Amino acid sequence: MKVSNTQWKEKLSGKMPENLARELDIYETEIALRKQGKIDERLFAETRLRRGTYGQRYDNGQRYDGTKFQEITYPSGDLTKGPNTMWDAPGMQRIKIPGGGLNADQLETMAELAEEYSDNIAHVTTRQDFQLHYIHIDDTPSLMRRLAAAGITTREACGNSVRNVTACPYAGTCQDEVFDVTPYSHALAKFLLGHPDCQNFGRKFKPAFSGCAQHACGLTNMHDVGFIASTRNENGAQKRGFQMFVGGGLGTVPYMAKLFDSFVPVEEILPLTQAIARVFARLGEKKNRNRARIKFLVHDLGIEKFKELVLEERKTLAPDLRWTDFVKDAEQFVEAPLRQAGEWPSAASEGFQRWLKTNTRAQKQPGYVVVTVALPLGDITANQLRALADIVRRFTKETIRTTIEQNFVIRWVSQNDLPEVYKALEAVGLGDPGAGAIVDIVTCPGTDTCKLGISSSRGLAGELHKRLAEKSYQLDESVQHLHIKISGCFNSCGQHHVADLGFYGVSRKVGGFAVPHFQVVLGGEWEHNAGSYGLPVAAIPSKNIPQVVTRLTERYVADRTHGETFKDFVKRVGKVELKKALEDLAKPPADPSDRSFFSDWGDPREYTLGDMGVGECAGEVVSSIEFDLAAAEREVFEAQVALESGQIEKAGKTAYQSMVHAAKALVKINHQNISDDPGEIVAEFRTRFYDTQKFWDPYAGGKFANYLFDAHQKASQPHTGDSSRYLIDEAQLFIDAAHSCYNKMGTAVGV
Amino acid sequence: MSSPINLQHVNVKLLVKDPESVDLEPLIPVFHSWIRDHVFDELLLDVADYRHVHEGPGVVLIGHQANYSVDNTDNRLGVRYNRKAPLDGTNQDRLTQATRAALTAFQRLEAESGLKGKLRFGGREVEVFINDRLLAPNLAATLEAVKPELQAFLKKLFRDSEYSLSHGADPRGLFAVAVKTSLEFALADLLANLAS
């Protein structure tokens, strides 16, 4: 779209690394060929995805306006950039930032790109990336060239590839770390980028590094491969290595990573990861993308067998100098401060004191702190990026990183400089306190821009932020440190499973209309690198979620025992009791004329009015289906309660039954006399809903139906703790999908 | 008179009167209704809400050819038209097109009942940006090069009234000029001036 697109290549000639410049020339040619119809749309889609260029909501050429679907007629007509993805539709550009590390020039480049190609906003993601929205694909080669000239690549920011290698943003400064993981994460990122062994995955592959086991900063438990710094004594000397984990991941059903090895010497982390990549590429699922993450492979094989295969593979690798080239430098790696160490500031304003309390963290190097710059919803303007560049130049040696909580940290700030740093940040609206606290809500893009969004996660986050910020100083200290994380759908990009209060978007039908809801997820743990995953307790209308937060936090303050964490509180009080406490909030509004429930936060359009049930057989059948689905939901909750009380077998069986009952609810729509026989229900469900694709999710396809088929096939097998846990998650997702299917049936199928 | 600089991707921002009294939330349904009702010839696509961002783009109506927003960049609240698609014609044509689009949008906003008459044109201040650093870097030399074009355009827009013109100093920013007139203008007058 930009007139200058034809000029950037020449302008930046010699300023980009040669390999990147060449790759981008090829990418530009691929764009031209696609426009001429000489590249298949699927192939082109994967090509652009591997450059981090995504589709965005409404790119299929239609948009719901609150009353009806309208076609969007883009100027390029039928030209597509992927299946069902119109060429001119705005898209999202993801930009990989390994370990979140940036310099001031790169911040300024990001500011320029946000202004010129996007809408003046850069967004920091939960994996330390940047995202720019509303980008035209014709602008992407120029955008990427400008990034390349600043030393940044978008290569493999998406697609079935190795994604951004994340690392603890406090690495090198943290008082609790074993050692600084920064150079090791950089070495792995560099080694895997474009590596031939990483080009044939069935799905993405996400690595993460942490300097310690106890904090959350690396979230290694929820990554495909995770590294936690460790040392051991070898011949009287401290030898560096890593605890290595594999097969973790959130997604629809979260899996906790398994310990691969309790100590992998630093010289082995690259070759072992390479061997893992090769095993994953060879044995990982390719056809069914819903089971293609490495977590399924590790689960199916078992960690011991998986490890055996990897170690065998390791033996076959040809030696590579890059495996160890970095090690000596890594051990010497150290960042330096710009200014002399200082003293903690004394007299100060109330605002400054609050900020000091929540937004600074003492470094292990005396006299220095890490300052957190809290970004509301992860968003920052071009002017703020430039101001941040000025600040990091003035006070540090440009030591700034993005965080997995969608913030920035400025490292190596002398304590002497804190008043001036605060003043400079405050002047550009970046001096808000509350970093890492309850007001610092993490959220994915949700229905704002994501094609998969079901509910408005950003809208809800904005509302919660506003309400909590107003009263944050009155909140009890115990509540201040809770984590709220929100995803717009079941895909967990907002990391709702590892929050104290997690939410993910679902829809429910109320009085014939679809109503945006969020599942309330409790029991997750952010600390200990995502130490445990929460489970859904109840689906609540979006507009009631602020009350859920108030009610649960008030209950926690009132009933907690001394020093009890929220997770422990949830466990002690029990989800049955907490669910009961939310029961009235799950109900539709008492006043049917109150239409506010039928639209989402920040979006006044009536939510999925186009899905309104206008079928011939309203009345009893509708209420019967809703009743049956609600019963299935109760059952899956009972399964959860059984699991938590150690009744593993009962938990697994109840979860399976809840799926069968939800399936039966749908089958009953056109087959009232269906029996209670699970075999018949599953067969009828398959014929009526799976084979006809009525149950299919627009993006996940038949994934949720397959949860039922798998569970039915394995119904007679005994359960383990893991298998019951996965089945509960799958059952909840199946029931959510049954609700969605039922919502759609009003217009799409007719009941 | 023709400038050596190709003025594409022109942004025009019309500053609002009493910005502290303006609530941006009611803009969201207004912009959604503009998409639904196809109020402009341009293709309108989505609404982005950035009210949570300090001195940010506010509420943005995303379009294919252009974005419309009530923008608070630099703590200067204004109705902004951001031309994204290239336009044929002369620099005068492009300045006129962007200004007319901003004026028309503002007029429409002033008439929106949902905004309760709170969003009003200040009458004196207009900002012009070129959203492409390669075409127009934010340098004094750029200002010198485009000044004759700008002056000709502003003469037409303000009908020979006096105005002051200032130029943003940060070379990292977009090329930007802020114009302040001595007389107060109504939106309709400025549209009429452009049409004459």
A few lines on this structure:
Chain A is α+β, with helices and mostly antiparallel strands and 751 residues long. Chain A has 25 helices and 24 strands. Chain A has 5 domains: 147 residues, no CATH class; 160 residues, Sulfite Reductase Hemoprotein, domain 1 (2-Layer Sandwich); 78 residues, Alpha-Beta Plaits, CATH 3.30.70; 134 residues, Sulfite Reductase Hemoprotein, domain 1, CATH 3.30.413.10; 139 residues, Nucleotidyltransferases  domain 2 (Four Helix Bundle (Hemerythrin (Met), subunit A), Up-down Bundle).
Description:
The complex is a heterodimer of chains A (751) and B (196). Chain A is α+β, with helices and mostly antiparallel strands. Chain A contains 25 helices and 24 strands. Chain A folds into 5 domains: 3-149, no CATH class; 173-332, 2-Layer Sandwich (Sulfite Reductase Hemoprotein, domain 1); 350-427, Alpha-Beta Plaits (2-Layer Sandwich), CATH 3.30.70.3340; 437-570, 2-Layer Sandwich (Sulfite Reductase Hemoprotein, domain 1); 613-751, Up-down Bundle (Four Helix Bundle (Hemerythrin (Met), subunit A)). In chain A, 40% of the residues lie in helices and 16% in strands. Chain B contains 4 helices and 8 strands; from the N terminus they run E-H-E-E-E-E-H-E-H-E-E-H. Chain B has helices spanning 27-37, 91-111, 140-158, 187-195, and strands at 10-17, 44-50, 58-63, 66-71, 78-83, 120-130, 163-167, 175-181. In chain B, helix 2 packs across helix 3 (140-158). The two termini of chain B are 19 Å apart.
